[in-house]
């Protein structure tokens, strides 16, 4: 998947479906043997389809690939795939060490400390920063509508999306809720280049605003609904409780928290995407819906509803009591 995306196979077959291995190899400038093996592997995974013509297989994108893998598809995950190839896959080259030590392998994979790598991603390289934002934007576009429409949010007028990056979920929230305005609260380096990701000609634009800050260090904007989408799983228990305490102190009774994460089965047998993600050994951890409920309840919230969305992320709505 990573290699085919990086070499432009899905983009090529989106533009010119029905090519044979010789034609694909010529276009992506690769060996015929290697290209044929890559194409056949992609067919076996359901990423491509093939049909015989004059005894030669002709390759096309599968429905799945056409929807998610072309770089210009409306719900493209291309940027997220490239980010994962560059930043996550190298960690899995050191999986044995990760399992033995129970620690992330950033230093072994990238020859620098995890904190230094984080700083590099956001500050030292514009290209890395844009790649990361493109990755987060692509995931948010795919999951945004499912999260924004999971619950009836008609009683909330002002939401704050903590770590909301490019505002993709914020725009989905305003589309689904005409009464709502959304503040996206994220790091200054992210807010500075948000314009590159803003949708064109949307009547909800003036209801989405951006404030720069660090949700661990700075005061949180006032809101009656706080959004935590793909945030809590990244951080240690200590930082998770610190952040939830800050939110709880900012909330009055009736304020809500919309949490969106991968919810593990209660017996921790799936879904595999969450359990595999946990093997990267970030400071955080993956949790079940009940574990997330317990976290929020410790800080004075009660769970109003839980939604398994059949998308990449699930959702939970909690209310301050």
From TrEMBL:
Positions of the catalytic residues: 233
The UniProt record lists the keyword S-adenosyl-L-methionine: yes
UniProt GO MF annotations: acetylserotonin O-methyltransferase activity; protein dimerization activity
PROSITE patterns: SAM_OMT_II (PS51683)
InterPro entries tied to this protein: COMT-like, COMT_C, COMT_dimerisation, SAM-dependent_MTases_sf, WH-like_DNA-bd_sf
Domain O-methyltransferase C-terminal stretches: 92-301
Residue stretches making up the O-methyltransferase dimerisation domain: 1-70
Pathway: Aromatic compound metabolism; melatonin biosynthesis; melatonin from serotonin: step 1/2
Keyword tags: Melatonin biosynthesis, Methyltransferase, S-adenosyl-L-methionine, Transferase
Job of this protein: Catalyzes the transfer of a methyl group onto N-acetylserotonin, producing melatonin (N-acetyl-5-methoxytryptamine).
Subunit-level organization: Homodimer.
Name recorded for this polypeptide: Acetylserotonin O-methyltransferase
């Amino acid at each position: 998947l990573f290699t085919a995306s990086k070499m432009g196979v899905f983009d090529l077959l989106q533009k010119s479906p029905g090519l044979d291995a010789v034609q694909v190899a010529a276009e992506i400038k690769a060996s015929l043997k290697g290209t044929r093996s890559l194409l056949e592997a992609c067919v076996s995974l359901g990423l491509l389809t093939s049909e015989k013509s004059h005894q030669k297989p002709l390759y096309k994108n599968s429905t799945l690939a056409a929807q998610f893998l072309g770089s210009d598809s409306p719900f493209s995950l291309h940027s997220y795939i490239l980010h994962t190839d560059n930043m996550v896959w190298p960690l899995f080259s050191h999986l044995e060490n990760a399992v033995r030590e129970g620690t992330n392998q950033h230093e072994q994979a990238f020859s620098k400390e995890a904190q230094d790598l984080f700083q590099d991603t956001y500050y030292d390289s514009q290209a890395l920063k844009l790649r990361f934002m493109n990755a987060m934007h692509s995931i948010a576009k795919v999951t945004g509508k499912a999260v924004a429409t999971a619950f009836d949010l008609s009683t909330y007028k002002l939401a704050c999306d903590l770590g909301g990056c490019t505002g993709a979920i914020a725009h989905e929230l305003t589309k689904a809720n005409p009464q709502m305005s959304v503040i996206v609260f994220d790091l200054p380096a992210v807010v500075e280049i948000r314009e590159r990701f803003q949708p064109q000609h949307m009547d909800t634009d003036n209801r989405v605003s951006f404030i720069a800050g660090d949700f661990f260090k700075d005061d949180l904007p006032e809101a009656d609904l706080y959004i935590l989408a793909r945030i809590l799983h990244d951080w240690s228990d200590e930082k998770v409780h610190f952040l939830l305490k800050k939110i709880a102190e900012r909330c009055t009774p009736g304020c809500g928290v919309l949490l969106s994460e991968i919810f593990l089965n209660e017996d921790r047998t799936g879904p595999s995407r969450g359990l595999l993600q946990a093997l990267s050994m970030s400071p955080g951890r993956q949790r079940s819906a009940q574990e997330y409920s317990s976290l929020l309840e410790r800080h004075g919230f009660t769970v109003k509803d839980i939604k398994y969305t059949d998308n990449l992320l699930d959702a939970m709505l909690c209310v301050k009591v």
